[in-house]
Each structure stands twice: as structure tokens, then as C-alpha cells.
Amino acid sequence: MDTKKTSKTLHLPVLIETDEDGVYIVSCPVFKGCHSYAKTVNEAMDNIKDVIEMCLAEERPENLNNFVGFREVQILAS
């Protein structure tokens, strides 16, 4: 019996924001609570990969939320 695991490349969306101190906050919306941060975008992206790997250890890829897309909403701020 072959017990090898097959690997699958996942393409996951991430959202990158900055806070009031200029820190980059990165989130992966297909996982609940999947966030990281860093002083640079590259470091934040490396960090979120580590967090996603931890999330994948808890959740099977076939059970992930389905990312639909990104939209903007226009609000008049006073």
C-alpha cells in the first residue's frame, strides 16, 4: 500500500493593510483569525505564509472558505 501524501499547490488570497504606525497587516480571508504583521510587505508576506501553514495543520484544504472576490463600497465620510 502506497502511503505517500500528494502535495497540492494552493493559491490563497491575502489582504494587505497598514496601520497608523505604518506596520503592514496581512490577512488570509479563507481562514478565521489568519493574520500577521511586519515592518515591510516582504516580511509580512513571509510571516503570513507561516501562519497559513499553521492554519492548514488544523484545517484540510477542501474545507476552506471559498474566496469570492474583492469589492469596494463608496461611503461619504463627513
TrEMBL record:
Cross-referenced Gene3D superfamilies: 3.30.160.250
Limits of the HicB-like antitoxin of toxin-antitoxin system domain: 13-57
InterPro entries in UniProt: HicB-like (IPR031807), TA_system_antitoxin (IPR051404), TTHA1013/TTHA0281-like (IPR035069)
Protein name per UniProt: Type II toxin-antitoxin system HicB family antitoxin
Lineage per the UniProt record: Bacteria, Pseudomonadati, Bacteroidota, Flavobacteriia, Flavobacteriales
